[in-house]
Amino acid sequence: MTTRETASLQISVDRRGFLKLLGGGLLVCLSPSSALAQESGRGFRGHELPNDVSAWIHIGADGRVKVFTGKVEVGQNIRTSLAQAVAEELRVPFESITMVMGDTDLVPWDMGTFGSRTTPTMSPQLRNMAVAARELLVEAAAKRWNIDPSKLTASAGKITTPDGQKFITYGNLTRGEDLVKSAPGDPPLTPATEWKIAGTPVPKANGHDFVTGKHQFPSDIVRPGMAFGAVLRPEGYNAKLDSIETTAAEKLPGVKVIRDGDFTGVVAEDAFTAHQAVEAIKAKWTMPSQPSNQGLFDYLKANPDGESKPDHQSGSVADAYSSGDVKLESRYTTEYIAHTPLEPRAAVAEWNDGKLTVWTGTQRPFGVHEELMQTFKLSPKQVRVIQPDMGSGYGGKHTGEAAIEAARLARAAGKPVKVVWTREEEFTCAYFRPAGLVEIKSAARKDGTLVSWEFHNYNSGPAGIETPYETPNQLIQFHPSKSPLRQGSYRGLAATFNHFARESQIDEMAHALHMDPVAFRLKNISNPRLRAVVRAAAEKFEWDSAKSSPERGFGLSCGTDKGGFVATCAEIAVNPSTKNVKVQRAVQAWECGAIVNPDGLRNQVQGALVQGIGGALFERILFSNGRIENPHLSKYRVPRFSDTPQIDIILLDRKDLPSAGAGETGIVGIAPAIGNAIFAATGTRLRHMPLTPEDNVVKS
């Protein structure tokens, strides 16, 4: 038995919940560990993750190792870091690992790839399985040679005797069969101080395929006899279809118009014709009156969506605020912004003997699997979702719209159908990072000690909402609001805006107290990890010698979220005539425990910083009465190469601490650092994101 596609072991569950073998082979069972419990966590909904190692790791007769995970590669390089973790514990060369990811027919159920959870949850889970497999292999070799297992060494994919005279490869031990044996959970893992493969800058797995163009992204998938689909979109949010005329579209060569309730789409021999056909459809819509950018933040505060409770409360903020020597009350706002992934949503759907297979770019293959099951009333075995490594998501590809659209069209057309969203569809049909309003009241003593902190977030979200500053009296609260636009996950969630508001307020408090912003922060921070990144960033940036002027400003921010600690310094130049801002230099210190792949981590942190410049200076969705007014990149400014500053990333490797995820938190520091630098240069405190004048949104 060598492939998951062609064979599987028969297993049953005994009264203790252990899996028992009914056929041949070797099965390793692990009791659920704390990492496993975290991985199931929110949204588990009764899914039981397999405890047998064969569900996660397979060693072929040739010694090649397949590792199975529901996590997906979206550009964050977890294909590499997870393979490093397994190679480390299994004691095999990195090159022998093949990661099988995001195929719902082959991998264990997974909640999804988001929230910076892969490294702190999936990595320990796979490491546990790898250790169990390695120990089983050692035991098998010891039994064969009649020797104490503790005397044997596992290294480079083989077991060796103490004198080095005998060895046997993993492949010769398994002969390609699955590993079967009961084992305790939470086996001892290799300390980070002893890592040989993990902790090193291993180049990107399959990197050659991406560089040469060999890799197929979801939008590249081609199936035999495949047609192309496009979908009729409403004129705006909450639009109601009054009438539709499809005659002109149906006259186009090779076009089939498909109606399915409120859904209207077309299928054609090529994508260009499909989109021509949609444009030929005459549809009339009724649009209700809806909110616009103007008045948005008052609307969010005045329209709650359910009850809100304090996220954190201690002491009495009212009494402490009234008795403070320095007081500050401020209001901060941020606009909706789009994900603008490199690759728009794409899906290819194929029906075959009642089974639906979809290739699509998604961060939640099993979530899309469930959406397809519900939409088409299918059983789990009748749906397969395959996620080829896709061209980024940033939290924007949690849902399966393109997959459902392709499946509907393919079922009606009787052939495979590909649907690739246009850039305009990405702007008008996908969800956005939420807009938000934050109101803060803070107070401090003359010596710089914070005494009161009251923080209210409307709509944006609770991520990163708690303050890292020691303040005895706190009231921190998130207030859900009714959103006029579709909103959802975005890299870092609300932590970016919450950090912007908090770090802007902290910076202004420091200036009001006539204290250095770094000294003020360190006075009120007790967490040694956060203090360490602040000191590291300030030292590298040469903060003590950074003197602002009307045309040049220097700013700093810090924060923590999802187990990562970050401090960011920014140097900006201000054009004296246009008042436009350009980030000249950025220094970011980062600490997330033991580093698995320093090059991959550095790329993630740098990429997050550059992306954060977009939300800080350019990006915002313009909308009026339910219609998006800037649904093209010509009107929606994202960071360009010319916007990229000189960047220094400082990585603090804490081998004494567990590894945390690093995909998101690196984005939270740049906006407040820029805002604080603008204030240092101009004396003007900008409290709205994006920070630059409105005409900079569309400026070339």
Q: How many domain units?
A: 2
What is the mean predicted local confidence, pLDDT? 91
**Percent helix range:** 25-40%
CATH superfamily of the largest domain: Aldehyde oxidase/xanthine dehydrogenase, molybdopterin binding domain
Structural class: alpha+beta
In spatial order, strands of the major sheet run 13-14-11-21-18-19-20
| Backbone CA Rg | 28 Å
- What share of residues are in beta strands? 15-25%
For the sheet with most strands, the description reads: 7 strands, mixed
What does the secondary structure layout of this molecule look like, with pairings?
Layout lengths: L10 E3 L5 E3 L4 E4 L4 H7 L16 E3 L5 E5 L8 H13 L6 E5 L16 H28 L7 E3 L2 E3 L6 E3 H5 L4 E4 L24 H6 L14 E5 L8 E6 L1 H4 L5 E5 L2 E6 L2 H10 L1 E5 L9 H7 L7 E5 L2 H7 L2 E9 L11 E7 L2 E6 L4 H12 L6 E4 L14 H13 L3 E4 L2 H7 L6 E9 L5 E9 L14 E7 L15 H18 L4 H8 L3 H14 L10 E10 L2 E11 L6 E11 L6 H20 L5 E2 L2 E2 L17 E7 L17 H13 L5 E2 L11
Parallel strand pairs: 3-10, 5-6, 11-21, 17-31, 19-20, 23-24, 27-30
Antiparallel strand pairs: 1-2, 4-5, 7-8, 8-9, 11-14, 12-15, 13-14, 16-24, 17-22, 18-19, 18-21, 22-23, 25-26, 26-27, 28-29
Protein model, in words:
- Strand 26 (564-574) and strand 27 form a beta hairpin.
- The strands form nine sheets. Strands 13-14-11-21-18-19-20 form a seven-stranded mixed β-sheet, with helices on both faces. A six-stranded mixed β-sheet has the order 16-24-23-22-17-31, with helices on both faces. A four-stranded mixed β-sheet has the order 25-26-27-30.
- It has two domains: 11-209, Aldehyde oxidase/xanthine dehydrogenase, molybdopterin binding domain (Aldehyde Oxidoreductase, domain 4); 296-335 and 433-697, Aldehyde oxidase/xanthine dehydrogenase, molybdopterin binding domain (Aldehyde Oxidoreductase, domain 4, 2-Layer Sandwich), CATH 3.30.365.
- 27% of the residues lie in helices and 24% in strands.
- The chain contains 17 helices and 31 strands.
- The protein is of the alpha+beta class.
- The radius of gyration is 28 Å and the shape is globular.
- The model is unreliable at 1-45 and 695-700 (pLDDT under 50).
- Helix 1 (34-40) packs across helix 3 (118-145) and helix 2 packs parallel to helix 3.
- 50% of the residues are buried.
- The longest helix is centred in the N-terminal third of the chain and has 28 residues, at 118-145.
